[in-house]
């Protein structure tokens, strides 16, 4: 019996050693983030707009005839490069206009003949000086009418229109054989240095745009960006688009009339703390960034001065020595533990 009694405590002790071990303290959860440094500096504010290449207000000339007639020849096409004096279109003046010119010639000859007769009668004292003055006036009036018709092209049965300067044909609203009224447009030529990109911008941003500012021009079809310069900004809305038109000059020959582009105009520079765009949290007020200190995220309220693809400019109590959370900024809260992601 003593042996049995003595073995019981030893067996219990052995069994107690085989029980489960104490659980370790679980690790503190953390959020994987990437970081960047904040730095003082400035970025240009960007005003964007879309538009096309078109002639300036004084960069194109539309050729037309003051007489009705018919297009009898075309020697160019829209988009063609032309040189000053190059033939573009042949135009035949309408017979009715030619008839009016011939009548003016006859009227002048008749007035001159009557004036000569009146002068002869005056010499014979059979006419008065007033009658001679009236005859002189009739000659003058007839000559004025003839000269005007000649200046309007009625003196030429067939007229060839030529390019007034080196440039590009932007429009030919007529076809071979068309009969046109007096003053109808026949062909438009734009100067090589008279093309601009006209873009529409938000009226609320008009005050920041001024002549001389630089702009980046990108074709909507793709390709390398071009550098341009603002040459004019309207002070009224375009009645068709309800936007403000801005003209941007570009290097001669770099773009073709009618090309569609996006313009990014660099206006005034905003200064402050420059941080990556993804680092600024704007989902809920206040706008803030998160900086890492002691392995934890600390929220820093900021005022957003500029938002752009190149970075955001903010102002607030930013610590230059503490990294700013970029990826993961929208997943953390103030005081959360963080770790550097892979």
Shape: rod-shaped
Mean pLDDT: 88
Uncertain runs = 1-18
Predict the CATH topology of the largest domain: Elongation Factor Tu (Ef-tu), domain 3
Question: What does this protein structure show overall?
Answer:
- Helices cover 20% and strands 39% of the residues.
- It is α+β, with helices and mostly antiparallel strands.
- The chain has four domains: 31-42 and 271-340, conserved putative lor/sdh protein from methanococcus maripaludis s2 fold (Beta Barrel); 48-56 and 192-270, Efflux pump adaptor protein, beta barrel domain (Elongation Factor Tu (Ef-tu), domain 3, Beta Barrel), CATH 2.40.30; 61-93 and 158-191, RNA polymerase II/Efflux pump adaptor protein, barrel-sandwich hybrid domain (OB fold (Dihydrolipoamide Acetyltransferase, E2P)); 95-151, Orthogonal Bundle (Helix Hairpins).
- The strands form five sheets. A six-stranded antiparallel β-barrel has the order 3-12-15-14-13-16. Strands 4-11-9-6 form a four-stranded antiparallel beta sheet, with no helix packed on it.
- Strand 17 (288-293) and strand 18 (296-306) form a beta hairpin.
- Mean pLDDT is 88; it is low at 1-18.
Provide a short characterization of the protein structure.
By secondary structure, this protein is α+β, with helices and mostly antiparallel strands. Helix content is 20%, strand content 39%.
């Amino acid at each position: 019996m003593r042996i049995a009694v003595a073995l019981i405590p030893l067996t219990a002790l052995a069994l107690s050693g085989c029980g489960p071990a104490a659980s370790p303290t679980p690790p503190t959860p953390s959020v994987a983030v990437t970081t960047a440094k904040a730095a003082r500096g400035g970025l240009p504010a960007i005003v964007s707009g879309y538009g096309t290449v078109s002639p300036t207000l004084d960069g194109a000339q539309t050729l037309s005839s003051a007489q009705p007639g018919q297009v009898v020849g075309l020697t160019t096409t829209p988009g063609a490069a032309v040189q000053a004096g190059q033939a573009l279109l042949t135009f035949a003046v309408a017979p009715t206009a030619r008839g009016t010119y011939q009548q003016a010639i006859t009227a002048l000859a008749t007035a001159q003949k009557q004036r000569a007769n009146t002068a002869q009668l005056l010499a014979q004292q059979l006419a008065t000086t007033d009658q001679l003055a009236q005859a002189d006036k009739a000659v003058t009036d007839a000559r004025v009418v003839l000269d005007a018709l000649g200046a309007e092209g009625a003196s030429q049965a067939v007229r060839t229109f030529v390019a007034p300067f080196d440039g590009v044909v932007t429009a030919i609203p007529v076809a071979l054989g068309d009969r046109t009224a007096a003053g109808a447009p026949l062909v438009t030529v734009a100067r090589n240095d008279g093309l601009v990109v006209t873009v529409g911008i938000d009226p609320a941003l008009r005050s920041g745009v001024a002549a001389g500012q630089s702009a980046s021009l990108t074709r909507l079809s793709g390709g390398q960006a071009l550098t341009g310069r603002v040459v004019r900004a309207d002070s009224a809305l375009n009645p068709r688009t309800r936007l403000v038109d801005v003209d941007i000059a570009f290097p001669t020959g770099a773009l073709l009339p009618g090309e569609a582009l996006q313009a990014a105009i660099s206006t005034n520079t905003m200064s402050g703390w420059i941080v990556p765009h993804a680092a600024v949290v704007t989902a809920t007020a206040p706008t803030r960034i998160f900086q890492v200190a002691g392995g934890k995220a600390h929220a820093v309220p900021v005022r957003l001065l500029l938002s752009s693809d190149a970075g955001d400019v903010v102002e607030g109590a930013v610590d230059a020595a503490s990294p700013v959370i970029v990826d993961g900024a929208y997943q953390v809260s103030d005081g959360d533990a963080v770790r550097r992601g892979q």
